[in-house]
Amino acid sequence: MVSKKKPSQQARRRDGAERPGKPTVKRGKRxxxxxxxxxxxxSKPRAKAPTEANAMxxxxxGGTKPMAEPKIEPQPKxxxxxxxxxxxxxxxGAGRAMAAGRVKGLGSDEIAExxxxxxxxxxxxxxxxxxxxxxxxxxxxxxxAQATDAGVNxxxxxxxxxxxxxxxxxxxxxxxxxxxxKTIGLYRNKARNVIALSEKLIAEYEGRVPQxxxxxxxxxxxxxxxxxxxxxxxxxxxxxxxxxxxxxxxNRIGLSRGQMPLAVEDDLVRLIPPEYGVPxxxxxxxHGRYLCKARKPECxxxxxxxxxxxxPKTVHA
Length: 317
Hints:
The model is unreliable at 16-25, 47-67 and 78-101 (pLDDT under 50). Among the domains are: 91-126 and 237-317, Helix-hairpin-Helix base-excision DNA repair enzymes (C-terminal) (Endonuclease Iii, domain 2); 134-233, Orthogonal Bundle (Endonuclease III, domain 1). By secondary structure, it is mainly alpha-helical. The chain has 15 helices and no strands. The protein is 50% helix and 0% strand. It starts with 8 loop residues before the first helix and ends in a 27-residue tail after the last helix.
């Protein structure tokens, strides 16, 4: 018995098309869904980025869960390049490297030799602020904040002709003080402080400047640096006023590694030989102002260049 060969699927489709009266075979729902999904997957463009896929899903209203945004890790900042021993390429000549403790400090014999040379050059150094007594010195130092000594001297020549005592200053009044010193920075606030400290000297110290640093620091406009200057210059005490010049020079040459003025002050008071304690801060200020300058130190004419730890040293003007 010969078995009949079943017609292929293609032949059945052809026969159905040729015989319209014969009903076509209905496909199952599962098969139709799978074909529809496959066709949709082929026609749907592939998402280029997670954000684009999320936007398409929200517009179509489908149930597809939006893809999470990729997490971007922060990149560490590159460290600045250095030039020389502990010097930053962004700030040549700065003393920050010494503050970080990357340059060897000076020995006691070297420190003594540095100040012996300073003494030989200028045995009796003087400050550059003009004054006649502790009170006028106090006022001049208060006015010198964020101002040059030359600018302060120009203003105080007129001011001290009008008032050179606490009582006269209070009688002069804040407005006239302000007019006299208006050529220097922050003159409004400084005029207010001059009147206020003069009133306090009259009320609590009989019009005299106290010979005590803690008491000085209670006066309006007076901080530790100002108090140290008054104690040193007016009363001959071995205090160390750390301004920008002293801070820079101490860190550069190897006297200190302090990163804050108070730390530098403590180092200098501890390390400087007692016989140089009073004039030492004048020497350091003058050295920083005229030789060991911030941007380009003049190492080629420095009297302590063989002892100084600063590198690289300048060799010409």
